């Protein structure tokens, strides 16, 4: 589910935040799908000093929560829980 600035624009907001925010249940399968979908954009973890690749860290099958990514085309924040939208249990 798209949330944040781009979601607000679809509801009439004129302010654009220039990043994509989404809420997703981050199952092993969902993370694998995200990695395949983002692969050509070189996704890197934004909040690690080394800017480690999202394609390699955390290893496949390891739980992932809230990846904050920088890609070649912009910023993508993936939250596993947003009050009122969803949570990682559902």
What does this entry look like structurally?
By secondary structure, the chain is of the alpha+beta class. The chain has one domain (2-79). The chain has helices spanning 5-10, 28-38, and strands at residues 2-3, 19-23, 44-45, 68-71, 74-79. A 5-stranded mixed beta sheet has the order 1-2-5-4-3. The chain is globular and about 40 Å long.
What is the secondary structure topology, with strand pairs?
Elements: E1 2-3, H1 5-10, E2 19-23, H2 28-38, E3 44-45, E4 68-71, E5 74-79
Parallel strand pairs: 2-5
Antiparallel strand pairs: 1-2, 3-4, 4-5
Give a quick set of tags describing it.
90 residues; alpha+beta; five-stranded mixed sheet; 2 helices; 19% helix
Element pattern in H and E: EHEHEEE
Give the amount of beta strand, in percent.
15-25%
Query: What is the terminal separation in angstroms?
Result: 13 Å
Give the strand tally. 5
**Which whole number gives the mean pLDDT?**
79
Give the overall shape. globular
Largest sheet: 5 strands, mixed
| Count of alpha and pi helical runs | 2
Query: What structural class do you assign from the helix and strand content?
Result: alpha+beta
Give helix % range. Answer: 10-25%
- Spatial strand arrangement across the major sheet: 1-2-5-4-3
Q: How many individual domains?
A: 1
What would you report as the Rg, rounded to the nearest angstrom? 13 Å
Stretches where pLDDT is under 50 for at least 5 consecutive residues are none
């Amino acid at each position: 589910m798209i949330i944040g600035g781009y979601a607000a624009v679809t509801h009439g907001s004129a302010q654009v935040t220039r990043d994509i925010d989404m809420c997703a249940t981050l199952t092993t399968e969902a993370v694998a799908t995200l990695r395949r979908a983002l692969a050509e954009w070189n996704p890197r973890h934004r909040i690690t000093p080394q800017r480690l690749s999202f394609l390699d860290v955390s290893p496949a099958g390891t739980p992932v929560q809230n990846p904050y990514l920088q890609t070649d085309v912009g910023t993508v924040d993936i939250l596993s829980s947003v009050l009122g939208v969803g949570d990682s249990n559902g």
